[in-house]
Design a protein that fits this description.
There is one protein chain. This protein is of the alpha/beta class. The chain has two domains: 126 residues, Rossmann fold (3-Layer(aba) Sandwich); 183 residues, NAD(P)-binding Rossmann-like Domain (Rossmann fold, 3-Layer(aba) Sandwich), CATH 3.40.50.720. The protein is 37% helix and 13% strand. The chain has 14 helices and twelve strands. A seven-stranded parallel sheet has the order 8-7-6-9-10-11-12, sandwiched between helices. Strands 2-1-3-4-5 form a five-stranded parallel sheet. Strand 3, helix 4 and strand 4 form a beta-alpha-beta unit. Helix 6 packs across helix 8. The structure holds nicotinamide-adenine-dinucleotide (NAD) and (2R)-2,3-dihydroxypropanoic acid. Nicotinamide-adenine-dinucleotide binds next to helix 8. Keywords: Cytoplasm, NAD, NADP, Oxidoreductase. Belongs to the D-isomer specific 2-hydroxyacid dehydrogenase family. GhrB subfamily. Its EC number is 1.1.1.79, 1.1.1.81. It catalyses: glycolate + NADP(+) = glyoxylate + NADPH + H(+); (R)-glycerate + NAD(+) = 3-hydroxypyruvate + NADH + H(+); (R)-glycerate + NADP(+) = 3-hydroxypyruvate + NADPH + H(+).
Length: 326
């Protein structure tokens, strides 16, 4: 008998067919308590879990005693209780490599869109305000040769540094948990403590994972260190920034603008004060959202799950210690 899995994301047909070669697939819409309750037997007997978003915590794991592997269509896994998974010998697989370049493109998009006020001026053109030669009220600020400060010099941080250094001639500052010799040799990047980075960078770009340590690391005190001309970009996770403190910094001119792909609450509520600020570019968490990259992520997540269920976890595993115990 084939093992069964819970699939909580819509996947292309060919990928579902690939899964069905090896496992029985039970498709659900989400991982809400209502869904779990309505499909209690399926959840109880499933050996695998595949999808994106949704909280995978102790309560869900209690409802899934047969679970052996979970596979997320994402690189970030802050929505998983990794300790609880590891305690129960459940492997967690993710997609760390497929999206790197695409997310770096998104970060560059936010840098350019905020600096050149792309949304604002395009909107003015649509409204028919471009009636004579433009003046300073349409101007933005330069990106090229300005200093970029990257908080989180991991895979995506490196891809951003490459674009900034080679494409835009930008000096690169960075902060991470360790020195990154490759970033220093390839991009001349300079390691800084967080306060120095915040006070020197023209573009402060956060691509941090969300952890207990990074929660609200960019709070009012830290934002106050930024130059009034500086622009803050965040494509890591929303709760890394204290959002009310950011709104205050943007409203009072303590910082120049912000480009955001992630928020404390997603989807961003329509009454968020961020949406009424002209100096904010807000995107709906599209960091990796191209057809090519989302397909590649889904295909990798499928193979990750099938491999994990067969005990093959050479790569893409968040808690490989589980495999060693098996
Ligand atoms: N907006 C999106 O759609 C999108 C897409 C992909 C990834 N992300 C987010 O970006 C994150 C990073 O992805 P990645 O592939 O570059 O991960 P990565 O693991 O390669 O890099 C993470 C970097 O953050 C640093 N870091 C972690 N904790 C830190 C701390 N407390 N202080 C300073 N630095 C710290 C690490 O040292 C590392 O350099 C993901 O975890 C995810 O949350 C968002
Ligand atoms: O972590 C990721 O892969 C993206 O943020 C999508 O959730």
């Amino acid at each position: 008998m084939k093992p069964s899995i819970i699939l909580y994301k819509t996947l292309p047909e060919n990928l579902v067919a690939r899964l069905k070669e090896k496992v029985d697939v039970i498709q659900v819409n989400n991982l809400s308590p209502e869904t779990v309750q309505a499909n209690a037997d399926a959840f109880a007997s499933a050996a695998g879990l595949l999808g994106a978003g949704g909280k995978v915590d102790g309560a869900l794991l209690t409802a899934m005693p047969a679970l052996r592997a979970a596979s997320t269509v994402s690189v970030g896994y802050d929505n998983f209780d990794v300790d609880a998974l590891t305690q129960r010998n459940v492997l967690l697989m993710h997609t760390p490599t497929e999206l790197t370049e695409t997310v770096a493109d998104t970060l560059m998009t936010l840098i350019l869109a905020t600096a050149r006020r792309v949304l604002e001026v395009a909107e003015r053109v649509k409204k028919g305000e471009w009636t004579s030669s433009i003046g300073p009220d349409w101007y933005g600020v330069d990106v090229h040769h300005k200093t970029i400060g990257i908080i989180g010099m991991g895979r995506i941080g490196m891809a951003l540094a490459q674009r900034a250094h080679f494409g835009f001639g930008m000096p690169v500052l960075y902060n991470a948990r360790r020195h990154h010799t490759e970033a220093e040799s390839r991009f001349g990047a300079r390691y800084c403590d967080l306060d120095t980075l915040l006070s020197e960078a023209d573009f402060v770009c956060s691509i941090l994972p969300l952890t207990d340590e990074t929660y609200h690391v960019l709070n009012a005190e830290k934002l106050a260190l930024m130059k009034p001309s500086a622009i803050l970009i965040n494509a890591g996770r929303g709760p890394v920034i204290d959002e009310p403190a950011l709104v205050d910094a943007l409203k009072s001119g303590k910082i120049h603008a912000a480009g955001l792909d992630v928020f404390e609450q997603e989807p961003l509520p329509v009454d968020s004060p961020l949406l009424s600020l002209p100096n904010v570019v807000a995107l709906p968490h599209i960091g990796s959202a191209t057809h090519e990259t989302r397909y590649n992520m889904a295909a990798t997540a499928v193979e990750n799950l099938l491999n994990a269920l067969e005990g093959k976890v050479e790569k893409n595993c968040v808690n490989p210690a589980v495999a060693k115990q098996a």
